[in-house]
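Progress note, project year one: complex with molybdenum atom.
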Amino acid sequence: SDYSQEPPRHPSLIINSQEPFNAEPSRSALISSSYVTPVDLFYKRNHGPVPIVDDIERFNISTFKPSKCQISNNIYSAKKKISNKISLTSTTYLLHIYQCAGNRRTAMSKVKTVKGVGWDVCAIGNAIWGGAKLADVLELVGIPNLASITPLGGKHVEFISVDKCKEENGGPYKASIPLIQATTSDSEVILAYEMNGEPLNRDHGYPLRVIVPGVIGARSVKWLDSINIIAEECQGFFMQKDYKMFPPKISWENIDWSTRRPQMDFPVQSVICSLEDVTQVKPGKITAHGYAVSGGGRGIERVDVSFDGGKTWVEASRYQKTGIPYVADDKSNDKWAWVLFEAEAEISENTEIVAKAVDIAANVQPENVEYIWNLRGILNTSWHRIHIHTEH
Ligand code: MTE
Ligand code: MO
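Model obtained:
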């Protein structure tokens, strides 16, 4: 693979793997920067070299019956066409977080070895994505009506990239989501060409990527080449042989990939970012500040923080921005964004600070990582624990 033409990156990123480039911001950078994660600090997760896409005419949308309906669109002409519709007079801006399924993998690997890139707690980011709603693009190219295509077998939307991954034997990265998820009237799946008000940069998918909110990052395919309407779920490596959640007893000797579905939504998560896992402090006031988020558009109901290892809990105060910049009519909601939280206490001796979030469906994070250990090290959403050593 050729890594000689990688884009420039911010020097403060913590590099977990150089080739392919996988990096995350430090905890303090992630949480102190702003509610909206700056592009250069946003984590980068690649499975191969970052492609150079000059040929922006390549983008095409096809259906599962190419002979009947095959449409190719320059993405910018697609944008223009969409703008001509009464319902869409401009780019849609949405505040969406996504999180890598491997976020917090390093901590899971301490229980027992797992396979995959090690990540601390910052493989997550909250950005303003500008683009076209996938539902509108599909409608434009004549796929408005689920009923007319489901009998013919079109049940999934497949996203195919132009990058080259060794897991795909040198072929492109790909993934799919159920068509219904893309076409319901409240679907906020977006084909994005802007991030935080600027054109997408190469690391994040220039010129066009999909953002599937509430779902693990792996389904938000970058450097889109084509979109297909297909009968079966995408058969790509990252759908069928990776990013599935197995029980702790499954090992590389007895794994049967076909027994599990591709992971889509991520579970409820919270992380303290203002402190390292082991922190030395003087006795006195201490603040735990971090993020909380849940999958599937389920909001955060509350975040509990304990300053005594989980014996007693206080409810953290929370901050969630309503309304985002760049939106004229301000009808935006924050359901796909993260919540920042803060709790404070006096500390006099060694202790453990713990965070756990509860989402609006009353799902709560599991207490111990052992219970959710899995061989690929995905979805570590166990209570986040910080060990405090006091210096007297
Ligand atoms: N899309 C392509 N084409 N190639 C990739 O390697 N990685 C996926 C997803 N989309 C990937 C991809 C994974 S696992 C994640 S977590 C997100 O992109 C990361 O997106 P980011 O690098 O823009 O943060
Ligand atoms: Mo990921």
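Residues 45, 100-102, 217-218 surround molybdenum atom (ligand 2) (CB under 6 Å).
The CA atoms of residues 285 and 346 lie 4 Å apart.
No further modelling is planned for this target in the current period.
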